[in-house]
Amino acid sequence: MRHLSLIAGLVLIAGAVQAQQLDWWQTGVIYQIYPRSYKDSNGDGIGDINGIISKLDYIASLGVAAIWLSPIYKSPMADFGYDISDFRDIDPLFGTLDDFKLLVAEAKSRNLGIIMDMVPNHSSDEHEWFVKSEQKIEPYTDYYFWQPAKGFDPNGAPIPPNNWLSVFGGSAWAWSELRQEFYLHQFHAKQPDFNYRNPAIVQELKDILTFWYDLGVYGFRWDAVTHMFEDPALPDEPVSGNPVDPNDYNYLKHIYTQNLPETPYTLSLYKAHTDEYSLNAGDGLHRVMMLEVWNPIEEVMQYYRNVSDFPFNFRFLTTMGAYSNGRDAENAIRGWVDNIPDNGWPNWVLGNHDISRVGSRLQLTDGAILTTLLLPGTSINYYGEELGMVDTYIPPEEVVDPAGYRDPPRTPMQWDDSQFAGFTTGPKPWLRVNDNYLTVNVAAEEAADESVLKIFRKLVALRKEPAIQFGTLHTTVVSYELVLAYAREAVNATDRSYMVVLNWSHDQTHVVNLSPGAFGAFPFEITNPTVEIRTIGSDIP
Q: In the chain, N or C: fewer CB atoms in 10 Å?
């Protein structure tokens, strides 16, 4: 067991400075829900909008500011909703547009906003636009990235234009017998890529944003944005040198299909459109624009400024593992805050629907949320993190993810110790429930003297403190680089400052000296510390 330590309230710091005003998306926590796994209201084994509505009181009790929903648009579900056949409607699996309107209204009545997923790179091949594009019906002919065959092999089979690969493996090109051309799909073959060099597509997406803003959404998380543009000259991509199969996406360096210069510019048009809508709405609501960008940090930072409110910070996902120590945690923090551009807003992500849960990946949950929730910036938390949910083993015969690896973090929310963890009253959930649901569930953690859920709520509440919203961040590492310590130094002398001390070692207890002068890296003296929050199993009295 890890012996994890404390957050201490400190009495110190002088100098009164007027703090800037922060908006809802800067002070609040954004809570991601994977809708088909949250709560099933009709017994079909799949979570839905009415299920989410039934749990809004619980979500509000967490203290979060907004709910980010993974895609609920109409879809054939080849990629569980990321293949969209109608950007202006709800898939019947999840409910109706009227159900969605009720969700927005009920959430708003509890001071919760609704954030939707925007999937700008592609649609479903069953979308009306693609069906008409394949038939060369105007104005849709060039809505997608079509190219003629490079030639034909001895058997008469068409040869793809180049060697580009799909994220899901194999060629990124699919042949249309009807149109007698290839279309690009950087993901699933049923997800044809849009042609963003066609201004009509840019306008179509603006109109879709307006449609949902009119229905009251608080903003969008933009999926896989770095794939939006490709080099029109169609050069082959170079081999990466990675020891993988030639059909594996990582076999190539994606210098012609990812992160092209046109991408940030085009996204800036959507940011301007969003800001203009908010200004004209006159309701004082800032509609947020968050981007999924997995690239190296120097490339990620170009998606700040006028491109978005922030690109997601995945450093705790990409640079941290089960054997990471305090120094690694500090590097994950400093690597973002020290590289962020002027006036850029930080954010912290511990998990999502595409990667192993933080409780499995880092082998701790309360310590991880303790680390990130009190850092400067927005916290984005995946459903179940507030409980300490971990990945679920899915037997090969039960795997449903087309990519083959994303099922374990997508299993149903664990509400209680009844059958299927209270997720569904039906005969079977769409994915199996984790075996630990008898003890790791909302009801059990509400009743426990100490639980990850109770720690999560306390941390979210502490985010309202002036030192957490406006305070200076100081970091250091002690105890042979195993223990991370950071402080949020209050701006005003009348406000409390806070320090987080977290042991990242395995099966080791460390004594940390909190006496005055012990933390030489901090430009202030620690006096009269009081313990505010202890992690589960902590030896702190």
A: C
Alpha-carbon dihedral sign for residues 453, 459, 460, 461: positive
Q: What is the pLDDT of residue 494?
A: 84
Please tell me the predicted confidence (pLDDT) of residue 250.
97
Tell me which amino acid residue 484 is: L
pLDDT at position 516: 59
Neighbours of 23 (CB within 10 A): 14
- Kindly report the CA angle at 345 between 282 and 474, in degrees rounded to 5? 140
DSSP state of 238: P
For this structure, is 89 an active site residue?
no
Pull the structure tokens for residue 477: 């590492």
Q: Is the dihedral of CA 324, 328, 329, 332 positive or negative?
A: negative
Catalytic one of 48, 193, 223, 330:
223
Helices (H) and strands (E) in the chain, counts: 15, 20
pLDDT computed for residue 364 by the predictor? 80
Q: Do 140 and 133 meet the contact criterion of CB atoms below 8 Å apart?
A: yes
DSSP letter assigned to residue 419:
G
Parts of the chain with a pLDDT under 50: 1-18
Q: pLDDT by residue (tens digit) across 496-532?
A: 888 888 888 766 777 777 665 666 667 766 667 778 8
Write down the residue that tokens 């100098």 correspond to.
Answer: 15
Contacts (Cβ under 8 Å, ≥6 apart) of 249: 165, 166, 167, 168, 169
pLDDT at res. 2: 33
CA distances to 28, 87, 474 from 316, in Å: 19, 32, 18
Scan for tokens 């210098």, then name that residue: 255
Sequence-separated contacts (24+) of 85-91 with Cβ below 8 Å: 85/123, 85/124, 85/126, 85/127, 85/128, 86/127, 86/128, 87/123, 87/208, 87/211, 88/208, 88/211, 90/49
Residue tagged active-site, from 79, 237, 292, 385: 292
Active site residue 407: no
Two tokens at 528?
Answer: 């009269």
Q: What pLDDT is recorded for position 478?
A: 84
Q: What is the pLDDT of residue 521?
A: 66
Is 0.90 surpassed by the pTM of this model?
Answer: yes
Q: What is the pLDDT of residue 481?
A: 86
Token pair belonging to 323: 């054997």
- Spatial neighbors of 194 by CB under 8 A, at least 6 apart, are 120, 121, 122, 123, 143, 144, 145, 201, 228
